[in-house]
């Protein structure tokens, strides 16, 4: 058995544009890189992950030791479908799709998520709002359709029902907390603001709303 993790990575010009009113281009780029490094490090340390791939139209951003897969430019779901097809040729028997903007994710959470998915055949990690999908694990059936986008969790659950799969839905904060909006950033970065420097970033979860999950 060979478990591959796939991390989709947006092109620089599309990275965290909703934070443009809070962070300048350099700060946004630094935040994106910090979160990507965190996710890749957690995947590297996870016992359940055998190999890692990044789907990107900018292969120069993919570090050594990680497989770079092309982004055809037709959207996230077609890119992930193409990646899954490609990884079959690399011997993949199970697949974890995980977003690149999870600053608190830990290897232990990834392992728990994958193990839960192996038991059920499918695992889904909701965002903290209970509407999006921050991670998806599929065992054996790499042809499970990807429905990432608006309200993706309900769409993935619908696809699971069609296939008579009862997915695991583990509540893991590191997989639930992503960074898309200024509210997300302010929750994680006590000193968030336009003058914030990467060296001052503190990726520590707050203990009050809106940072708590709704799972």
From TrEMBL:
Alphabetically ordered keywords of this record: GTP-binding, Nucleotide-binding, Nucleotidyltransferase, Transferase
Top EC class of this enzyme: transferase
GO terms assigned for molecular function: GTP binding; phospholactate guanylyltransferase activity
Domain of life: Bacteria
Pfam families hit by this protein: CofC
Biological-process GO terms, alphabetical: F420-0 metabolic process
EC code(s) of this entry: 2.7.7.106
Classification via InterPro entries: CofC (IPR002835), Nucleotide-diphossugar_trans (IPR029044)
Pathway membership: Cofactor biosynthesis; coenzyme F420 biosynthesis
Catalytic activity annotation: (2R)-3-phosphoglycerate + GTP + H(+) = 3-[(R)-glyceryl]-diphospho-5'-guanosine + diphosphate
HAMAP family: CofC
Family named by the database record: Belongs to the CofC family.
Protein role: Guanylyltransferase that catalyzes the activation of (2R)-3-phosphoglycerate (3PG) as 3-[(R)-glyceryl]-diphospho-5'-guanosine, via the condensation of 3PG with GTP. It is involved in the biosynthesis of a derivative of the hydride carrier cofactor coenzyme F420, 3PG-F420.
PANTHER family reported for this sequence: 2-PHOSPHO-L-LACTATE GUANYLYLTRANSFERASE
Full protein name: 3-phospho-D-glycerate guanylyltransferase
Organism: Thauera humireducens
């Amino acid at each position: 058995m060979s478990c591959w993790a796939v991390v989709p990575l947006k092109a620089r010009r599309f990275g965290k544009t909703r934070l443009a009113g809070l962070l300048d281009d350099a700060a946004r780029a630094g935040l994106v890189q910090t979160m990507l490094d965190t996710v890749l490090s957690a995947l590297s340390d996870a016992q359940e992950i055998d190999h890692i791939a990044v789907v990107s139209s900018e292969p120069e951003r993919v570090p050594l030791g990680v497989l770079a897969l092309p982004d055809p430019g037709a959207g996230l779901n077609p890119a992930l479908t193409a990646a899954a097809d490609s990884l079959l040729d690399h011997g993949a028997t199970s697949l974890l799709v995980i977003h690149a903007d999870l600053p608190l994710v830990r290897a232990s959470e990834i392992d728990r998520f994958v193990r839960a998915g192996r038991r059920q055949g499918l695992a889904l990690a909701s965002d903290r709002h209970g509407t999006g999908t921050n991670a998806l694990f599929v065992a054996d059936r790499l042809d499970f359709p990807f429905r990432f986008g608006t309200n993706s969790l309900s769409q993935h659950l619908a696809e699971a029902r069609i296939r008579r799969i009862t997915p695991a839905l583990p509540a893991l904060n590191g997989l639930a907390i992503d960074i898309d909006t200024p509210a997300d950033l302010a929750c994680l970065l006590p000193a968030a603001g336009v003058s914030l420097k990467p060296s001052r970033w503190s990726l520590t979860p707050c203990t009050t709303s809106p940072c708590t999950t709704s799972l």
